[in-house]
Fold Nicotinamide N-methyltransferase.
Amino acid sequence: MSDFTNTSEYEEQFDPRLYLETYFHLGSGSLADDFIRFVLENFNKTFKSGAVKGSTLIDIGTAPSIYQLLSACENFDDITVTWHTNRELRELQKWLKNEPDAFDWSSIVKHVCEIEGNSASQKEKEEKLRGKIKQVLMCDVSKCNPLAPHEAPKADCLVTTVCLEAACKSYESYGTALKNLSNLIKPKGHLLMAGDLGANYYEVGSNKVFSLPVNEKFLKNVISESGYEIIQLVAFGKPEDAAFDTSDYEGFYFVHAQKK
Ligand SMILES: C[S@@+](CC[C@H](N)C(=O)[O-])C[C@H]1O[C@@H](n2cnc3c(N)ncnc32)[C@H](O)[C@@H]1O
């Protein structure tokens, strides 16, 4: 049975600003430091390799984050960002409108400029991304058209980070969501996906937020069975001396796949 996270329960549990403040100050020593470095390095390498080209890119489950698009905006001119809860949308809008109380992404933007060898200032890099974002749409991966009622033209590339593990309550629904996402991608278009391995939860304040624990074997099978060819699946194992108690994660993954 397809089983997805209840949106209003999720919205109540997940404080988007607290999530950003807890995990997205690079160098703060949180478990996400490893994740951010790993994911940003893989996005940078993948886009720089020239293997992922085109003009249109959709990021599913963007809000409240933007780190996952900082390298994408060097290759793609037409980026659609998406949101699932109003609370997350409000946080994303603060950044989109460059409001004074928007979350400060500077530690992460600085890191991306460094690994890209990009001489742009942090401000220029953020402005470049803002300029490439052409649409902000609601999304629901449980729907056959996850952007319904909007009928978007199929994209050259679809990005999604730490989203399906939050949205899908079962392994079966994870496969359904991947098939739904493929309806948004052109044939031979690209899927770039990243998230946690083995996590049942991560803490946001005093709340333990649900995560579906996935492993490499499951990911390989479910992606291949959902209409994609895997180009690359990279995993990062949690260092043995890592003593974080904010999540029971075992590592991270990054996948580059192509729609058949
Ligand atoms: C941990 S957050 C990740 C946000 C962002 N992508 C990131 O990397 O920081 C999980 C995301 O999954 C989204 N989500 C939960 N259920 C969803 C659904 N049915 N459809 C689409 N997104 C969903 C949440 O709204 C949230 O944006």
Remarks:
- The chain has a mean pLDDT of 96.
- The pocket of S-adenosylmethionine is lined by residues 4-5, 10, 61-63, 65, 68, 84-85, 88, 139-142, 161-163, 166-167 (CB under 6 Å).
- The chain has one domain: 7-259.
